[in-house]
Design goal:
Largest sheet: 6 strands, mixed
Number of strands: 9
Distance between the termini: 53 Å
Number of domains: 1
Helix content: 40-55%
Shape: globular
CATH architecture: Alpha-Beta Complex
Bound molecules: ligand LTMAUQNL
CATH superfamily: 2-enoyl-CoA Hydratase, Chain A, domain 1
Strand content: 5-15%
CATH topology: 2-enoyl-CoA Hydratase, Chain A, domain 1
Order of helices and strands: HEEHEHEEHEEHEHEHHH
């Protein structure tokens, strides 16, 4: 908390610096007038989150923090998919060293995004299942385009959404709705998501979403950044601390879980069903 306070006080005195962290999988651009960064996920066809994409995103978030960013819009280069969630191939017959690196990077990406000192908006311009929904939930505000689906559908895949996935959802829609959403693995339509507060606004186009995102950032023009950041930390800090404390334990559980032959069989069948869908 104290460190964050010092960092946020520094925001008041340091001028904004421009920088570039764009990579092949995450394009980063900075609006010179507003200082707002836009990170666009660009891993066709569905922005599934593999180790390389997560590493780029994680580094981008670290750089934004270091450079005292004014804010971040997280979006997708696809017109139909925000992110299909974790890359299922990272969990199918995994090389365990890579798998551990993958999961550690996912944890760190969440810590950086959920706990960022700068304001964050997800422009959800396509489907956002599972890990895709997690990325959106980790932002402070979600603006979604119509006619897509969003949710933590892990139970439908025979998996359990980790506690910090659940905490991110609880932070947005409360305990009751989170329990219902998680046990059913429901994917919500945009309108259903709006109704339960899983997203904050529904729009018809990406341009409209970007305009609304600008309005969200404008709300902070007259709010001292340190007060904003400390308030966010007071609300989200416990969720982050819980993961920081249990990181290793979670890794041990996951290692055993992912090597379960029944789970591997289920993942294989799920991958097959995704392929079959394409052949129809
Ligand atoms: C102590 C802790 C205890 C327990 C924790 C245990 C484990 C960890 C738990 C869970 C965390 C898991 C989180 C996840 O994110 S799992 C991933 C879930 N994602 C999904 O279910 C989405 C699957 N995809 C879709 O539904 C559709 O693709 C989508 C609606 C996103 C887009 O549809 P569209 O019609 O546009 O594309 P497709 O034809 O379906 O796909 C194109 C292409 O992409 C491949 N694909 C899709 N999704 C994924 C993915 N997530 N990973 C890898 N590959 C994916 C798909 O197979 C097609 O490939 P190809 O046939 O080769 O072209």
């Amino acid at each position: 908390m104290a460190l964050r306070a010092v960092r946020s006080l520094a925001i008041l005195s340091n001028p904004l610096r421009t920088y570039s962290t764009s990579g092949p999988l995450v394009n980063v651009s900075i609006n010179e007038k507003t200082g707002i960064a836009t990170a666009t996920l660009q891993r066709p066809p569905v922005n599934s989150l593999n180790l390389e994409l997560l590493t780029e995103l994680c580094t981008t978030l670290e750089q934004l923090e270091k450079n005292k960013s004014r804010g971040l819009i997280l979006t997708s280069s696809s017109n139909t998919v925000f992110s299909a969630g974790l890359d299922i191939y990272e969990m199918y017959k995994p090389n365990m060293d890579r798998y551990k690196q993958f999961w550690t990077t996912l944890q760190q990406t969440w810590i950086n995004l959920y706990g960022s000192s700068y304001p964050t908006v997800a422009v959800v311009n396509g489907h956002a299942p599972a890990g895709g929904c997690l990325l959106a939930l980790s932002c402070e505000y979600r603006i979604m385009l119509n006619n897509f689906t969003i949710g933590l559908n892990e139970t439908k895949l025979g998996m359990i959404a980790p506690t910090w996935f659940a905490a991110s959802m609880r932070n947005a829609i409360g305990t009751r709705q989170t329990e219902l959403a998680l046990i059913t693995g429901n994917l919500f339509t945009t309108d259903e998501a709006l109704k339960i507060g899983l997203v904050d606004e529904v729009v018809q186009s990406k341009n409209e979403a970007l305009e609304k995102a600008g309005k969200f950032f404008d709300k902070f023009k007259r709010i001292p950044p340190h007060a904003r950041t400390m308030t966010k930390t007071s609300l989200r800090g416990a969720d982050i601390q819980a993961l920081v404390k249990s990181r290793n334990e979670e890794m041990n559980k996951l290692t055993a879980f992912i090597n379960d032959p029944k789970l591997q069989e289920a993942i294989g069948m799920y991958l097959e069903s995704l392929k079959q869908k394409q052949n129809k």
